[in-house]
Amino acid sequence: MRHTAAVLGSLILAGPAMAEPDARDLYTRHCAVCHAETRLGGTGPALIPETLGRMFGPRLEAVIAEGRIATQMPGFADFLSADEITAVAAYLAEPLAEPPVWTALDIAATREMRVDHTPAATPVFAADPMNITLVVETGDNHVSVLDGDTFDVLDRFATPYAVHGGPKFSPDGRYVFVMSRDGWVQKYDIWSLAEIGRVRAGLNSRNIAISHDGRWLAVANYLPMTLTILDALDLTVALVIDVEGRDGTPSRVSAVYQAPPRESFILALKDIPELWEIFYGANPPFFGFVHDHRIEGPPKVEDPFPIRRIRLADILDDFFFDQDYEHLIGASRETESGQVIDLVIGRKIADIDLPGMPHLGSGITWPRGQTMVMATPHLQSNTISVIDMGTWQTLQEIETLGPGFFMRSHATTPYAWADVFFGPNKDVMHIIDKESLEIVRTLRPEPGATVAHTEFTKDGRHALVSIWEDEGAVIVYDAASLEEVRRLPMKKPSGKYNVWNKITFAEGTSH
After folding, report:
1. Phi and psi dihedrals of 349, rounded to 5?
2. Fewest Cβ atoms closer than 10 Å to its Cβ: which of 122, 238, 250, 502?
3. How many separate domains does the chain show?
4. Residues in Cβ contact with 67 at an 8 Å cutoff, skipping those fewer than 6 apart
């Protein structure tokens, strides 16, 4: 009897343990308080495939078990079994049953502005406000504010989770707007070294652009498939535009760019073969605009954001512009060529050979002889393409030690800097002579560590490079001698953005 009872007891105990974990219930009990029942985010980010990116499988399970350093995300290894953690991770990988909606009212409900903020009349620091450089530290979701002359840290402020797309400055350089992957837009007063407010403009967002007059912010959204336009003064909603093709096909917005001379925003669309130009100026040119998704006449006073559609032969989801914003160079992730679109006449005028998936968003230009050239790294080949912008022919393909992600230069330097972001040589930074188009030096600032994203100071005398590691650094180089000047410890620093270079759309920087 005793033996039989023991066996029966073990079977009773084994029964519940064999049951599949209820992932939805586990999420509701342990995760919804921060990430919402809808999984669209609250104090924590949205937990859906569109926002989690490649963080699935073992990596996501590790975050659930161990938490995230320097965030409010705790570890659940003491509360959940390994099977339960695996089940929750699999649940988060499932798409939502219904595409989420995020309306102007939803956006407005998230808006938080500091009512106690009094803007400083002059900068509260002695540094040159035009030579401030911001460093995005992705390791713990902060931005460091650097004096571009001394490289002292003037402030270090918290940002929303997973900053993406590059901060954008107001035309006077006083304010900066920072956007996160989960759609939060944050406004920060550089002169006062203080945050002013934030609002959630989307659920999964790609980047932001600011109008040349500093009045409007445009937010490119993957989820929902919209473009949100905010008033840059107080982050109120001006308009939410549903992005759809002529046949009603909805599209994610890959990116939005400012075209200052045209007083417009230009959209890269992920799912439809169209290019959208949205005008915000007082007197937009007439091309046959779209109002409420109908082709109509010239814009009315009550419709301040008329849309011009340009039909394309292919989907182009990555853009580059010439300095005058008369030509757009676009590429698709699935092709090995680029197209030149004349924005004045609204059609393709040339094809460009761009093998290896170019990263046009990080391309740069410089004058060489009697012409301007553009150069772009590639995400899948060990080359940098250099294109003559007069003929749109390839001048040279520079062989590198691996695929790259970022390029930078400055009008005062003879060199272009290009990282090797992928592969075994990720610790390499190539220095390229802009006349000979040859690699004249290869730097390895920290063997084995990822080196990325160069930015120059206002005068071009110094180049700042990221050691893109959790315990990383920003390395300051003398741009002439290529010698290290200073090393600043940082938490996985990624992009760096100099106020002057960005507001003047300086040669050698991405726009």
Report:
1. -120, -10
2. 122
3. 1
4. 73, 74, 75, 76
Residue 302: its pLDDT value, please? 54
- Give 500's Cβ-side CA count (13 Å radius): 16
pLDDT in tens, 65-102: 999 765 678 999 999 999 999 999 999 999 888 878 89
DSSP class per residue in 39-98: SS-SSSPP-SHHHHTT--THHHHHHHHH--TTSS----TTTS-HHHHHHHHHHHTSPPSS
Q: Enter the pTM of the model.
A: 0.85
Query: Looking at residue 21, which CATH number applies to its domain?
Result: 1.10.760.10
| Position 39 in a domain | yes
**Cβ atoms of residues 393 and 413 within 8 Å:** no
Angle between helices 82-92 and 23-30 (to 10 degrees): 90
How would you write 412-472 as a 3-class SS string? CCCEEEEECCCCCCCCCEEEEECCCCCEEEEECCCCCCCEEEEEECCCCCEEEEEECCCCE
Place of tokens 């989907």: 315
CB 154 within 8 A of CB 189: no
Q: Is residue 107 part of a domain?
A: no
Does the residue 304 lie in any domain?
Answer: no
Let me know if residue 82 belongs to a domain.
yes
Quick: pLDDT tens for 417-446: 999 999 999 999 999 999 999 999 999 999
Q: What is the mean pLDDT of residues 36-61?
A: 78
pLDDT band at 9 (very low <50, low <70, confident <90, very high): very low
Q: Which residues contact 390 (CB under 8 A, 6 or more apart)?
A: 371, 372
Q: What is the largest CA-CA distance in the chain?
A: 99
Cβ count near 116 (within 10 Å): 5
Instruction: Give the separation between CA 321 and CA 340, rounded to whole angstroms.
Output: 9
Give the Cα separation of 338 and 391 in Å (integer): 14
Range of the domain at 39: 2-92
Angstrom distance (rounded) from CA 214 to CA 209: 10
Q: What is the mean pLDDT of residues 2-14?
A: 38
Upper half-sphere CA count for residue 91 (Cβ side, 13 Å): 21
